[in-house]
Amino acid sequence: MNAGARVTSPRSIGRWLCGLVVCLGMAAAGDPAAAQSALLNVSYDVTREFYKDYNAAFARHWKEKTGQSVTVKQSHGGSSKQARAVADGLEADVISMNQATDIDLLHERGRLIPADWARRLPHDSVPYTSITVFLVRKGNPKRIRDWDDLVRADVKVIIPNPKTSGNGRYSYLAAWGYVIGSGGDDRSARDFVARHNFRPRHPEVAERHKQKFATLELFTVQEMFGGWKQAQKRHFDDGGVLDQLLTGAR
């Protein structure tokens, strides 16, 4: 799951359609001659292969539309680290973040985007979604099929540290949201967590690829937790629910 926005800047060459991104610019008055021939796309780790294909497709599209050749360079790393680098002066044209708090940083520290960036594009500026995938041993000998299987006594789970990893936070919140969405309460969610390919948002694109993605009931961080700021404060800040679970506090 991702989040994004768009701002204007003299450095860019046009609208960039991509997921979970902040587009830091557009061409001046639509004049192709005023646009640069190179862009820097700053993103997080897991989008590296996606953007290799997407950047090439965008370059072909831009060439056909304007006659101008464009090269898109890539920079990848941890989401929060990449956001801080841009806030500190890395001159990105497009930036993709793992979670909304990293995009908020671009407003809070550098005023590079407006505070209401999520309202500027459809779907709260999130053009694709993702799900948590269980990676099991070959043949799935313990028959792990759903979240309930993860808390069995014979199953051990490894996830990234939610205190420092965006993917760890998604895994944690997905487990919590599974319990709440199944009719549980915060107490049962605590007990459940204390134990242990991007989906397109555009309806036509999603329809074309429906055979690739199983039909699942999904929820957003906004719907289940009131947004990333509230989720961060309650669950991941020092002294939050995650710390309480790790120390056995109630």
Give an overview of the whole structure.
By secondary structure, the chain is α/β, with parallel strands linked by helices. The protein folds into two domains: 5-129, D-Maltodextrin-Binding Protein, domain 2 (3-Layer(aba) Sandwich), CATH 3.40.190; 147-247, 3-Layer(aba) Sandwich (D-Maltodextrin-Binding Protein, domain 2). The protein is built from ten helices and seven strands. It has helices spanning 48-66, 79-87, 100-110, 122-125, 166-181, 186-195, 203-208, 221-225, 228-236, 241-247; strands at residues 5-7, 21-24, 38-44, 71-77, 94-96, 128-129, 199-200. The strands form two sheets. The protein has a five-stranded mixed beta sheet with strand order 1-2-5-3-4. The longest helix is centred in the N-terminal third of the chain and has 19 residues, at 48-66. The two termini are 29 Å apart. Mean pLDDT is 75; it is low at 1-22 and 25-30.
Residue share in helix: 25-40%
Low-confidence stretches: 1-22, 25-30
Radius of gyration: 20 Å
The helix-and-strand class reads alpha/beta
- CATH C-level class of the largest domain: Alpha Beta
Question: Any descriptors?
Answer:
250 residues, D-Maltodextrin-Binding Protein, domain 2, alpha/beta, globular
